Amino acid sequence: MTPDFDAVCAAARRLEGAAVRTPLLESPLLNEAAGRRVLVKAECLQLTGSFKFRGAWSRLSALDAAQRARGVLAYSSGNHAQGVALAARRLGMRAVIVMPSDAPALKIANTRAYGAEVALYDRAGGEDREALGARLAARDGLTLVKPYDDPWVIAGQGTCGLEIAEQAHAAGVTRADVLVCCGGGGFTSGVALALEGAAPGLRARPVEPAGFDDTARSLVSGRREVNAAPSGSICDAIVTPSPGEITFPIMRRLCGPGLVVSDVQALAAMAAAFLRLKIVLEPGGAVALAAALAGGAEGEGEGGGEGEGEAVIAVASGGNVDPAVFARALG
Amino acid sequence: MTPDFDAVCAAARRLEGAAVRTPLLESPLLNEAAGRRVLVKAECLQLTGSFKFRGAWSRLSALDAAQRARGVLAYSSGNHAQGVALAARRLGMRAVIVMPSDAPALKIANTRAYGAEVALYDRAGGEDREALGARLAARDGLTLVKPYDDPWVIAGQGTCGLEIAEQAHAAGVTRADVLVCCGGGGFTSGVALALEGAAPGLRARPVEPAGFDDTARSLVSGRREVNAAPSGSICDAIVTPSPGEITFPIMRRLCGPGLVVSDVQALAAMAAAFLRLKIVLEPGGAVALAAALAGGAEGEGEGGGEGEGEAVIAVASGGNVDPAVFARALG
Asked: Longest Cα pair distance anywhere in chain B, in angstroms?
């Protein structure tokens, strides 16, 4: 299966009625603060609190009957886990999720609440999650659902881009940068494919946390760069070692330059989303909005509204944040 | 002008393109906790962070040219102020807002940020806001925009009910209680009028904070009861002395019994909305969800989904909350 615009459209048909069509929000006071229109795709309002449900549903709903009967396995520190867990339950399938024992407590609890079996491994102690997962999958014939480097997952996550294309057009914005919170690049590449076919005037750009800007550097060098550290950002949801084998060529062909924001900027964007948009974002889900507020995009979008500069679109990709971290952002 | 279903439909035409069509959200984990489907109309995502913008726009957009040229005046502790301020600015009108000096700091700051002139009065010290407002209005020929006891405001706020009717039908719910956060009854009566015409199987019910249940008691006694205290709830947005002269007969004719929740229940509903729906609610905007989670409605709605009991719809009416209060709800 080739991840392309047609694949995104096919995924959209499978997702119809199963996923939320999230709103594209705008706040006059946020526009004034940013000096331009900032349109925010509130994907935190998606089922399970992040865009990951789209990719999970896309992948699981395309499995054959034998695969469905055996079930699926996924590795995830959180949002992908919840997406796979709920999709599996609603499709009547078994799901086993391999999670690091130091993942946010809320994400582990939610994954179990959605009906999945959680297998914890000791990330800090160096336990090999691949070996654990491979053992479980081989024993029970489970199908591995990758978080981003999978054509069906990319296509499913790209359905968010189809909605952005329609909603931006309705808001009078036909040329702008679309900033996407980026980990392994599944979401960014999927959105880029959707925009290529549905709104050629909109250009996807990945946004990453400082110190974990593997995609931004890879887009500059032309090859898949690797981060120096495996973890250490509050933006845990989007920390990955490097862009994917499948996602990177798509991003290289379609995306504008990457953007990088600090943890402090991500927290400030969470506070802005709380104050101005009334949505809850996790740090990793707020980096695109942080970049939009920092003026980090040079789109050729249309001005208007309360903003004076060019419009920008930021995808608010997830809201699964522990209350203590959220309180820190507000403080 | 008679506040009826036709008036709500006319207001919807004036509001088209000016207000946000807010989503009707649902969370599988929230359904499980409640034991039934809980559909949440996320009106906190409306412009200015509450449903008040609908009524303000409805009223201001129906003024004649001479009234528009002179401008408007409103009394409000917050949400109505912001709604009138933004509607006036977008319609090119002057707005003067009379606010108590002890209103939440965020609401005063926002009202000014939307371009309105704020005239503060000493509520705790007993200063007469009516006299202040009358003086300002007489001097400049301003039109008073009441927060709820006005047919145009009621009709405008009722447009939210038209959306609920359509969205509930799309979600497979045709018989259910629709719980509405209730102060003076403008929102509740407007939603009730909309449902009467657009979804007769849906029944509006007012929800109030304990100690300020004037509407619930009025629906029982058949006359407009008055609260014992003028203030003293964290649900400041929906504390009014009694139901309105115009709103009460509508509620009496169309609404089911009123529901009452405690401040603690309102705070818990804010936390549930944070965790499960990723939306920000203020205490007064969370009382309907609090009642839904407390099992306080006896709708004849349809079961299904993760919930086992009958479906209920809760309107989440506003999200303008100071960070300290929000942190308290999460703690």
From this structure: 60
